[in-house]
Amino acid sequence: MQQEEKRLRDGRIVRGETPLNLEMPFETLDSFITPTESFYVRTHFPIPSIDRGAWWLRVEGAVENPFSINYEELLELESVTIPATLECAGNNRNFLEPKVKGVQWKLGAVGTAEWTGVPLSTLLDRADAKANACEVILEGADGGMLDEPKSPPGELRFVRSIPLDKARRDVLLAYKMNDSELPAEHGFPVRAIVPGWYAMASIKWLQRIIVTDRTFFGYFQTIDYAYWKRRGDIAERTPLTELQVKAQIAKPAEGETVPANATIRVHGAAWTCDGEITKVELSTDGGASWKETKLIDKPIPDAWCRWEYQWQTPSQPGKQILIARATDSQGRTQPVERDPDRGTYMINHLLPIEVEVQL
Ligand SMILES: Nc1nc2c(c(=O)[nH]1)N[C@H]1C(S)=C(S)[C@@H](COP(=O)(O)O)O[C@H]1N2
Ligand SMILES: [Mo]
Q1: pLDDT at residue 5 in the model
Q2: Which of 7, 153, 215, 330 is most open to solvent, judged by the fewest CB atoms within 10 Å of its CB?
Q3: What is the 3 state secondary structure string of the chain?
């Protein structure tokens, strides 16, 4: 506990200094919108410092009309504001057994913000994608050398692609977060928001959009941020994309002491992709029985929904195991066991939380 507190910065847990990785202590969840100063930060390279006056976004590749747009011009285009939950694909990694490499996120590499910006479709329409275009590559301005055995030698940038239809339908080029200018660590001046997908797709410090007519096989979607998908008995490397349905308990937190014979508020948040949360259940007996919780927020696509339950604690002291389980409008729910094909990502199997009931 002492050690964890020492590593707090502005209320966030420091998971890494260079590159900067900050986690929200998930037990502090108390609003639908995560305050920007609590929102987790995930970076792979030093944060680029970008002068808005010198910033240009280039749109090129398989398009009839390649062009560049600057900050001022982008802000003049029609904007929209949407709430969207970002979750790092490695969120909950610290709970994997045996321990694996990577940033040791607990529950707090997730947050919900209101993002304001220009739909990517506006720029794609202006560029006029060629008929054979199928993907859009988003490139960040950040880069450097990675100390990873399977990374390309020399410098690389943080780059990822999305299918053209997803890019046209959902993606936002955001310049505001929670109604204020995007902070440097969250991608100033402009970042992509890819609703419903793990957040590695939401490229920060966006500087180039490349429309392409072939599948993109960049490092951050083949070697990293990818998993093994089975085609029969053949394992196929597959980029991480959609968020997997999940509920997390904010309070009580792991290891917390709660009074016996009392009514305790158990609460948290749940989210999914391509649908809404329809149900969050809670077990207070290690999964033997389940009770439906109350959804606090109106379930909407691409944003979490908070939930709560008034738990009548046992009259006897001892350990109790709490587990939350979400179900969505496509009838999907969380797996009981961890699927090893997912490597160190997409962690949404049921997560028991141990609490201590005391007289
Ligand atoms: N350019 C760039 N974009 C990036 C990253 C990055 O390192 N560089 N990290 C990605 C990952 S893995 C995550 S989880 C989210 C985190 O966004 P946040 O720091 O605003 O919470 O940004 C994504 N976009
Ligand atoms: Mo991430």
Answers
A1: 47
A2: 153
A3: CHHHHHCEECCEEEEECCCCEEECCHHHCCCCCCCHHHCCEECCCCCCCCCCCCCEEEEEECECCCEEEEHHHHHHCCCEEEEEEEECCCCCHHHCCCCCCCCCCCCCCEEEEEEEEEEHHHHHHHHCECCCCCEEEEEEEEEECCCCCCCCCCCEEEEEEEEHHHHHHHCEEEEEECCEECCHHHCCCCEEECCCECHHHCCCCEEEEEEECCCCCCHHHHCCCEEEEEECCEEEEEECCECCCEEEEEECCCCCEEECCCEEEEEEEEECCCCCEEEEEEECCCCCCCEECEECCCCCCCCCEEEEEEEECCCCCEEEEEEEEEEECCCCECCCCCCHHHCCCCCCCCCCEEEEEEC
